[in-house]
Amino acid sequence: MRAPLALIMIATAVAVSGCSSKGLRDIRPQGSGPDEFGVLPVKPLTQPKDYAVLPAPTPGGANLTDPNPLGDAVAALGGKETALVPGQGVPSSDQALITASSRYGVPANTRVALAEEDAAFRKRQGRWTRLRLFPVDRYEQAYRKNALNPFDQTEAFRRAGAATPSAPPEDE
User: Fold this and answer.
1) What is the rounded CA–CA span in Å between residue 24 and residue 30?
2) Do 59 and 49 meet the contact criterion of CB atoms below 8 Å apart?
3) What's the CA gap between 98 and 83, in Å, rounded?
4) Digits of tens for pLDDT over the chain (172 positions)?
């Protein structure tokens, strides 16, 4: 009677362990998803003074909430907010900003190239680890060799004479 009960308990434990959530550590793509660089922070919405007289919609144009998103982005990078007019290119006053940000070159297909390189890297790293009885952290598994040990780094900086903040104990 003990053997079947033990087998049932082990089978239940294996079945329940597959229900855990990996959260952000599951690095496999879940779909095409949104473009994280296409999301612009906007100003708060405002209530119109008169609902009977509303402006006509301008698809692809400026809006009342965020009239100059490109100018706001230029200002955040250190340029002049009013200098950038959509469709007129980069003004000469911001040419130094463009030169500094593209000093190492700007390939046109950066996002695609990085995605392909990362997929190939993860595939090489996970060649012998595809079959697992229990869920594993693929992120930690793939990038284990690239991870820094924070405690070793803190000690190295302290030995070099750099002031470092206190760190939590290693067993936490």
Assistant:
1) 11
2) no
3) 13
4) 577 888 888 888 777 666 665 555 565 666 676 666 666 666 677 788 888 888 777 777 767 666 777 777 777 777 766 655 555 666 777 778 778 888 887 777 888 888 898 888 877 776 666 666 777 777 777 788 888 888 899 999 999 999 888 877 777 5
Task: Quote the pTM value.
Answer: 0.35
Six-digit token string for 47: 């209530």
- Spatial contact of 104 and 81, defined as CB atoms under 8 Å apart: no
72-104 core/surface letters (b: 16 or more CB in 10 A; e: else) = bebeeeebeeeebeeeeeeeeebeeeeeeeeee
CA–CA distances in Å: residue 104 to residues 21, 94, 107, 108, 150: 40, 18, 10, 13, 30
Let me know the angle formed at the C-alpha of 102 by 99 and 104, rounded to the nearest 5 degrees.
120
Q: How far apart are CA 145 and CA 70, in angstroms?
A: 40
